[in-house]
Write a structure and sequence with these properties.
alpha+beta; six-stranded mixed sheet; 6 strands; 29% helix
Length: 107
């Protein structure tokens, strides 16, 4: 178990609970998400991405490590779900602003 910033911890908990509304509330209104070669900006786009990702993959995320680097939080996680090769290891890079996620990159 790792100690994460509240918004990040809430994001992973909400994602695992399939609560897209609560997950979206963890993001700043002007936040950006980079995932699967796409950049999404703003809450409306992020809410749609959360919904589509849940429907398509049904992901379950287990945080393996988390560390603070250069003003960001880097999280390594095991992700399982309805996709080929499950489970896989992904890296999440978060930037925070005023207690909310302002940027998320998933690689």
């Amino acid at each position: 178990m790792t100690l994460l910033d509240t918004a990040i911890d809430r994001y992973f908990s909400a994602t695992n609970a399939r609560n897209n509304q609560l997950a979206a509330e963890c993001f700043d209104p002007d936040a950006s998400v980079f995932d699967e070669g796409q950049q999404l900006t703003g809450l409306e786009s992020i809410q749609l991405w959360l919904q589509q990702s849940q429907q398509k993959y049904q992901p379950l995320v287990q945080v393996l490590t988390a560390q603070h680097n250069y003003g960001e939080v880097w999280v390594k996680a095991k992700v399982s779900g309805q996709f080929q090769g499950s489970p896989i290891q992904l890296n999440y890079v978060f930037a925070l602003q005023d207690g909310k996620i302002s940027r998320l990159m998933i690689r």
